[in-house]
Amino acid sequence: MSHRLPSADHLRRGLEAILAAHPKTPRREHLFGGSFDRLEVLGVGASAVAFRASDRWLSREVALKVLRDAKPSEDDAIRFHRAAKILSALRHPNIPQIHHYGIEGREAFTITELCPGSPATDVAGPDKHLRPDEVIAVGRQLASALMAVHAVDVVYRDLHAGNVLIARGEKPRAWIFDFDHAQVSPGFYAHLTERWATPPEARAEPTSEKPLRNMDYAAPEVRGGGAFTAASDVFAFGLLLYRLLTGLRPFPPGGSEPVPARKVCPECPPGLELLLLAMVNPSPSGRPTLRAVEEALAAEEEELEALECEDAEAEQEAAAAAPTVPIARVVLSATPESAPVASVAAVERPTSSQAATAAAPPVDLPIGTSRETPIARRGGMWGLLALMFAVAVGVVVGRVTASGDAAVQLAGEVQGADAPMMPSPTPPSSTEGKPRTSTGDGPTKPATAEVAPMNSAHEGAPPKPAQTTDSTSKRTPTSRRAQPSPRGAVTTAEATAAAQNAIKALRACRDVPGAITADLDVVRGKGAVVTLNARAPAPDDPRYPWHACARDALERVRFPVSESAGRVRVRLPLE
Description:
Number of strands: 18
Radius of gyration: 38 Å
Helix content: 25-40%
Number of helices: 13
CATH superfamily of the largest domain: Transferase(Phosphotransferase) domain 1
CATH topology of the largest domain: Transferase(Phosphotransferase), domain 1
Strand order of the largest sheet: 1-2-3-5-4
Oligomer: single chain
Number of domains: 4
Structural class: alpha+beta
Largest sheet: 5 strands, antiparallel
Strand content: 15-25%
CATH class of the largest domain: Mainly Alpha
Shape: globular
């Protein structure tokens, strides 16, 4: 219902504009104004039509707006010319820059900067609205643009979603256009650069105004017969931001009190909710100025960015606090069979020959380092054994006894990159603390080994035997909980799981297929749709009426936060 044309006359003007943009026999005479080739219709208004056009001589694309009526009223012509003058007095990144005003035959036209994006009406519905961070970014830009308009003594008066363009991306951009119904004061003309200024009494003014007082975005004081002011622009601005955030009007039918935004959009920051309520205050004196609006939105944006930075820093700090690979001290000596060893379980491996070990001094080396000396090789193997077991079962160094022959044989088998994989250690048995005997044929000398993190306070001190613990309840102390490490880019599985939250909204899209395969660029918890079923999103293409709805639904999904950008492909069955 909302997409129906308002009248048959509106349809006629649109069809005429399409025929003008696509003549049967393009010739040089087809160039509008001798320079501009009309490529497509951008919009059809009550008295004017906007085209995307190509400037033949300057090789650039521009926006061409033509006063299309064969006999436009004098008031329409005055408003059209005045809007061009307002644009010429403004220099702002969120207001299209005017390049030229002229008359072709009997048709007045303007050439302005061609802005990307689509009308804000495309993202102001219940099923297709902006995220809070996007609303804040758009709001800051529009507030700045409106301040520039008011600075040249102009009241916009006609602010609504149809007169705003929004280009979405990592950070959206917005533009205000169509100043035909703007109201100028005498001070406006002082901002113009005129060689021969028009005397005030000779300035052309419309004899009648459009019925803007009855529009649904008009402020209460205007509806009551009051004048349009900067405060009435703030009211319309608040309605616009509320609709972009929720897709709804703040005032329910028959209600006089606005509905707080967080009741409709739980993700809305509390500060933004309070600001919107203040902007739609029925009393003009209770509304904030545009400067205050811009500053409040800037503060909300900084707070959101700070929260994102805190999340990233928390991940980095957690990664920095995670336990690192310790330096191991290996002590091999001939000791009694009851001396402590560095594993909770002895590992016995069959050997073809036996070797006895003599007392050796402690050797400090990083775990896993392979050197040419036998002591270093033993330290590397025992360090790897301790690390693997601690990660597997979360157990610290305990007390067990091992056969010296098994210890020597196990340590001696580390030969570099070609060494065979070690077997996993076995948990302690009920015979813990009793001497184990080798399965070899000859007598062997018992050997013990202690592996422990380096501690400068005990450097050179002899290792202390571990205290005897109860074999049933105190055998395995609780290990320190591992801290999270910095995560990489979001994986396909993570993205698919998060995208499940969009299935309900996707099913509501018009003419949506039974399954959607989407490629998304995901970074910092936000996803940007790259393709939908192997096609670039085409929200304005009538062949794919579901593209705009599906893109918006997927881009509202909150993905896992990661500073690393990545592209993922998700497939979502909808039937």
